[in-house]
Amino acid sequence: MSMIFFACVVRVRDGLPLSASTDFYHTQDFLECRRQLKTLGLRLAQYPGRGSAEGRDFSIHFSSSGDVACMAICSHQCPAAMAFCFLETLWWEFTASYDTTCIGLASRPYAFLEFDSIIQKIKWHFNYVSSSQMKSSLEKIQEELEFQPPVVLTVEDTDVANGMMNGHLPMHLERAPNFRMEPVTALGILSLILNIMCAALNLIRGVHLAEHSLQDPRSRFLWLDQTSR
After folding, report:
1. Which stretches make up the Longin domain (predicted)?
2. Are 46 and 69 in contact (CB under 8 A)?
3. Model confidence over 160-206: pLDDT tens digits?
4. Is the domain of 132 the same as that of 204?
5. pLDDT at position 173, please?
6. What's the pTM?
7. Torsional sign, CA 197, 199, 205, 208
8. Low pLDDT (below 70) residues in the chain
9. Contact 112, 18 (CB under 8 A)
10. CATH number at residue 24
11. From CA 52, how far away is CA 32, in angstroms rounded?
12. 101-132 residues labelled b (16+ CB within 10 A) or e (exposed)
């Protein structure tokens, strides 16, 4: 029974995929796990060493050293020691096949796609060879995991990171300050009344002046005659 479904090699500094297994599962859960693996690959520089992210039906395991990291999607039944032993074997094979200069100069995804055949062989070995034949290697990895446990992430961690990388920063809503108006004092009321009275008196005065000028047009001409002299 297969317990390791997918594996890939990525460059740590920018998450560039260098090689990957070509077998592909088309279930929705697996496709979602692939998306989360891709997002996690962009953040491997934050998690040097070993780590795992648990999903609903699958687990993502990764192991990085230097500028190369290996990642795998495994079933929940796959022991952690087996997953990390597989990743360590994959890492040694890849770094033995390509030097750091070639890895650093890679500019396109899957620049070392021919390494897929090696991934397939190693994956088949771990899926179908009995664990008793790998006992010493598994025991060594198990001791290392007990001494230094891997970083444990959640699916939510990868989703939040994906949102931040796409420019969707988490929003923190705060309650708007509650302003209260001060009660009007007696002095304020008196000032308001006086202003209203002054405005009313000015309005009445203006109306009376307008009525007077309309009723006695001679006063207007007299005023014009006086101003022309």
Report:
1. 8-119
2. no
3. 545 444 444 343 333 434 445 556 677 767 777 877 887 777 777 76
4. no
5. 34
6. 0.68
7. negative
8. 1, 155-184, 188, 206-229
9. yes
10. 3.30.450.50
11. 16
12. eebeebeeebbbeebbebbeebbeebbeeeee
